[in-house]
């Protein structure tokens, strides 16, 4: 029975790898659309987000069947429930990338990000993508450094987010609409990074059995 | 065994009622703090949010024990997993109310909401509170109208949220910082309402067995 459970858990991880990889692409395309007014990229993000609901339902059903078909012991249950948390976080990450893409479409062809802010936004996008990529890799293979790297990357996003408020509150010359757009976009990146870190902790737990920090 | 499960599920619902009632108070205090620069109210919101992590862990443990101590059938599992979704949403709602309170503390004694926006913000707070209250009541007693009422209230919050962008983008005279604060505050109310609706759907499912809309 334990062998069967381990095999099912592997299948679950396989599904989550594909989903995490898609969510990683989404934030890359969202940043691309944001920095280059790229409507094709924005469209790809929205298409991926539309598919996520079905993916999440599928993973939840997989976990449910996994639990129904055996007498669960506490450890197995915790692993399966970690999978639920991960797919919930991945779905939110996909939706947040889509929120960014939607602002690009709404303002097109006007650039959303003023020139002097582009490097900071690009950096935020890179670190968010790196976080999602760390989650994807950690699902595929035991990565003992994943947790530490995620903490570091999450701190970078928080710092970039804070710096942005500094710019908005002291040197801003682009009007209220651009400020509102940028406020929301930074919030979306920050939440994306947060969900990636949460998912990453659960993944480390699924792979190593090491409890996520409470 | 089914009777034991039903009893445990009742206990779980009891825990969720207390938690949902606390989250309802949080948004009321957050709105109070926002409209009256009330630091005591803000402090109550933050104290409640700090307690939520322990509450969530407790509910998750309760659900885990509930699943471990019986051979679960699919229906029971779905009910228990709905409880997990609900407590996750309630935790986020508490955190979002706290985000509002934290902005009040940051700007104190300066009012965060300009006078002409106060009625709209007050209305948003009332509807968000009403949504959380609907979730609380639906947990306590079978409420056949809960789902329809939540849809209506969620639409009201979305409309108020959209109207606010209209004000920000056309008639705004209060500078960038106030616009950024208000953008985030409206986003927090909107997310709070969204999580309430999600939780409400799961509660209706827990109570009636009627599947939440996908």
TrEMBL record, chains A, B:
GO terms for cellular component: cytoplasm. InterPro entries: PhoU (IPR028366), PhoU-like_sf (IPR038078), PhoU_dom (IPR026022). SUPFAM superfamilies: PhoU-like (SSF109755). Gene3D superfamilies: Phosphate transport system protein phou homolog 2, domain 2. The keyword Transport applies. Pfam families: PhoU. Its main location: cytoplasm. Keywords: Cytoplasm, Phosphate transport, Transport. Residues 23-104, 121-200 form the PhoU domain. GO terms for biological process: intracellular phosphate ion homeostasis; negative regulation of phosphate metabolic process; phosphate ion transport. It is found in: Cytoplasm. Signal peptide: none annotated. Belongs to the PhoU family. Homodimer. Plays a role in the regulation of phosphate uptake. This is Phosphate-specific transport system accessory protein PhoU.
